[in-house]
Amino acid sequence: MTTLIKLYGAPVSTCTARVMTCLHEKAVDFALVPVDLFSCEHKQPPFLAKNPFGQIPVLEDGDLTLFESRAMTAYVAEKFKEAGTDLIRHHDLKEAALVKVWIEVESQQFHPAIAPIVYEYFVAPIQGKSPDQGVIDANLEKLSKVLDVYEAKLSSAKYLAGDFYSLADLHHLPYTYYFMKTPCASIISERAHVKAWWEDISSRPAFNKVSEGMNFGEK
Amino acid sequence: MATPVKVYGPPLSTAVCRVVACLLEKDVEFQLISLNMAKGDHKKPDFLKIQPFGQVPAFQDEKISLFESRAICRYVCENYPEKGNKGLFGTNPLAKASIDQWLEAEGQSFNPPSSALVFQLALAPRMNIKQDEGVIKQNEEKLAKVLDVYEKRLGESRFLAGDEFSLADLSHLPNAHYLVNATDRGEILTSRDNVGRWWGEISNRDSWKKVVDMQKQQHSP
């Protein structure tokens, strides 16, 4: 008998959304256990025993406890590889390897440039600060260069790792979703292939189930 | 007999070393094809075909061309499972997931501040680029917080993911090596009891010593 997967996190959190989207794509049942960020539940000992870095989300599957959202999605995509959407292309060595490459591209090239921008527009104001234009501009420049490579790649294939949707595309969803609500969204929409790719992946039902809860900062 | 795999990039590059260390642990024969980055080899059209971001390393075996050092390492571990250190990325899904979370922690939490410090303290002076004291201080603080977590973890566990050396520990070697050997801030690692003990163990592995030798050979006349 399989136990129900538990995901500790918050619906507005990008990294929680990343894992929830993956679980929905794989049609895997799970329970979202809310973590109270405002009372800093994630920085206190009971939670720190699950994630010593004091961050959400955390995934529990029976005796296994995991932190780092991309380790969670990799685990779920592999454990349930015969169910739902094939996110890791395990039947094809080359496709599977290319998915790994573009997962790292999101992690090492895209994320470091987009995350600070999303932070400045969404998180800084909650802490009573105005968005730092210097940080935004510097990271927009980096992100633009990354998107130039994406534009070229997506002009020869429908998705990042090839003509198939994969975990590599999925990992981009949460931060880009918030980014598209900022004044900087044009750097996505002015690149024709990136725009088409974004519209495609963000309209997937698995993501729509999750984006309904992503109303950070909205009243 | 299999053709050696190819790794493109200079042995002094941290990301190249990550891949080389993995190949040595896995006993996978490889050919290191160095690039002259000062001459812009990594930005030339032929190289951009295999690495569109113009960075090192790139990797080729008989089947495929790849980039991003951690993707290459995962691929090597999964596609050469019977070679060398079989447990490097775990021999079952639970072990693999536990290693993967610490490999992600390296990539998301350890790498950014340690890379910034290596650049500011070891590379910038050699490239005649002015150091940014603000960036140094900010990243020292960030790295210290990460290493506080490691200190606690490594008091409970011999290596990051458990009792065995894994890809997660390996991934830390290149940046940590530069911090300890090429900057005056090495004590950020060595002054912490458990982190220091762990650093001593992982940097003494035969595979890492071979990487360090390769780096020294590049330097000798």
UniProtKB/TrEMBL annotation, chain A:
Q: Which UniProt keywords apply?
A: Cytoplasm, Detoxification, Transferase
Q: Which reaction does it catalyse?
A: RX + glutathione = an S-substituted glutathione + a halide anion + H(+)
Places the protein is found: Cytoplasm, Cytosol
Does the keyword Transferase belong to this entry?
Answer: yes
Specify whether Transferase is a keyword of the entry.
Answer: yes
One Pfam family, please name it.
GST_C
Which biological processes are named by the entry's GO terms?
Answer: glutathione metabolic process; toxin catabolic process
InterPro entries assigned = Glutathione-S-Trfase_C-like (IPR010987), Glutathione-S-Trfase_C_sf (IPR036282), Glutathione_S-Trfase (IPR040079), Glutathione_S-Trfase_N (IPR004045), GST_C (IPR004046), GST_Phi_C (IPR034347), Thioredoxin-like_sf (IPR036249)
Q: Where is the GST C-terminal domain?
A: 92-219
Which PROSITE patterns has this protein been placed in? GST_CTER, GST_NTER
PANTHER family this protein is in? GLUTATHIONE S-TRANSFERASE F13, GLUTATHIONE S-TRANSFERASE RHO
Report what the protein is called.
glutathione transferase
- Which species does this protein come from? Citrus sinensis
- What lineage is this protein's organism placed in? Eukaryota, Viridiplantae, Streptophyta, Embryophyta, Tracheophyta
UniProtKB/TrEMBL annotation, chain B:
Transferase listed as a keyword: yes
Which keywords does this chain's UniProt record carry? Answer: Transferase
Q: What is this protein called?
A: Glutathione transferase
